[in-house]
Amino acid sequence: xxxxxxxINTFDINxxxxxxxxxxxxxxxxxxxxxxVRKMTSADFSCWLEMRTLLWPDCPKEEHKxxxxxxxxxxxxxxxxxxxxxxxxxxxxxxxxxxxxHQQFGQAGYIEGxxxxxxxxxxxxxxxxxxxxxxxxxxxxxxxxxSDTEDFNVGSIVAHKKLGYIEQFRADGxxxxxxxxx
Length: 182
Hints:
Helix content: 25-40%
Strand order of the largest sheet: 3-4-5-6-7-9-8
Number of helices: 5
Number of domains: 2
CATH topology of the largest domain: Aminopeptidase
Strand content: 25-35%
CATH architecture of the largest domain: 3-Layer(aba) Sandwich
Largest sheet: 7 strands, mixed
CATH superfamily of the largest domain: Gcn5-related N-acetyltransferase (GNAT)
Distance between the termini: 38 Å
Shape: globular
Number of strands: 9
CATH class of the largest domain: Alpha Beta
Order of helices and strands: EHEEHHEEEHEHEE
């Protein structure tokens, strides 16, 4: 992985507490203010492909490539966002306009895929991506955005709820969410 780390020797920190061991703690520099979220472009193809493969490892690489090209060529109905920390890609979100979200809520934006690299989770970067998708949805003229996740993905369920998404129902191993936005 290509990111900066700050290593702290806890022996130095705890020296005066008579702790007789040393261990190395790795802390990602995730507190930087040099964060940007923007729409993906063809220049992002390789990092987009890499992160998609991390999110959906069972999907064939050629299918990932085809779907990326489809998204790049359909900006009125599909949009992907990238988040970068100090110019390093750390996550992405793919959104779409669905004509009938969850087959009962009508037209809405939809979060198709949402990924933040492991070391950068729980720092608000995923929220930044979701906010970009919500803004795009409003710009496209819609007042709701929907999403789903696997019913065993507790972290994703909690994240959706923290961001104001309301669980609508569960079906076929998925939890379905919706959120009103303006």
